[in-house]
Each structure stands twice: as structure tokens, then as C-alpha cells.
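=== RUN LOG ===
request id: a7f3
mode: sequence -> structure
chains: 1
length: 169
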Amino acid sequence: TEVIEKLEEVVMVWIKQIRQLLVESEQMRREADDSGPSAELEHWKTRMSSFNSLLDEIKSSRVKKIISILQTARSKTLKQWKELDVKITIAANEAKDNVRYLYTLDKFFGPLAKASPVTMMEHVPSLMNTVCMIFCTSPYYKTSEHMTSLLLKITNQMINTCKTYLCEG
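=== RESULT ===
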């Protein structure tokens, strides 16, 4: 029982740390007012990397052994652990899925940033079709917040491109 208590303490520390990570990942992002769509892709890539690392850690033999011992001892801490495990898996899947969908826009980021306003406009219909496809098919990205953030960043990039064009001309 002493060993079980120590292991439960360890798991409770993990639970607290994971909850903190989940809370932080859901907080509002602080980004520059003029950040472009590449910042959206980078955000989700970073988040995917964090949650994949966390999943790898949770699936490590050390963690599995501790959880197995606590299962055998019918520990009450496992209920919280299992709930967090599900949340982490969902967050990792969301990030992975969002990265996959946002990569379909990656081909537009260069022309959006480097083209003249006239050339940039040639890419807008295809870009908007791709955004529409993401909205219609992505299980995670089709929320109002995600779409607003993406469209705002696309607009920011278009404005920055036009400003640069005007200053050079």
C-alpha cells in the first residue's frame, strides 16, 4: 500500500501537469495583429509536436508499468487519468488533422506574400475554394473561431502585400 500511495502521488502530479498543459493550449493565442496564414500553420505544427511528445511519454513503458500497477490495485486515480488520456488523444488528433488541412493552403502562402496585388488576386478564387473545402470537410477546423482566425490571417497577408507594393512603387 505504501508503494501504491507513492505511485498515486506520482500520477496525481502528472495529472496536474497535463491539466495545466490542456488549459494553456485552450487559452487565447497572442499573435501580432498583422500575422499571416503561415502563423496559423506554425501554431498547429507546434501544438501537434507538443501533444505527440506527450502521447509518446504516456505510452512509454515506465508510465504503462505504473498505470498497470495502479489498475491491479484498483486505484481511484485512474478514472482521472483515463479522462485526461482521452482529452490528450483528441487534442493530438485535432492538431494533426488541422496541420494536414492547413498544408493544403501552403501553396498559396508564397504567392499571397510575394505577388503584386493584381497577381495575388489570380490566386484568391482557388484559395477561397480550398478554405471552403477545409470548412466543409475538416472535423475539427470547421468552427467559427478557427475559420475567423484563418480568414483574418489571410486578409492580413493580403493587406501587408498591398502595403509593400505601394511602398515600393
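=== NOTES ===
The chain has a mean pLDDT of 90.
Residues 16 and 56 are 18 Å apart (CA to CA).
=== END ===
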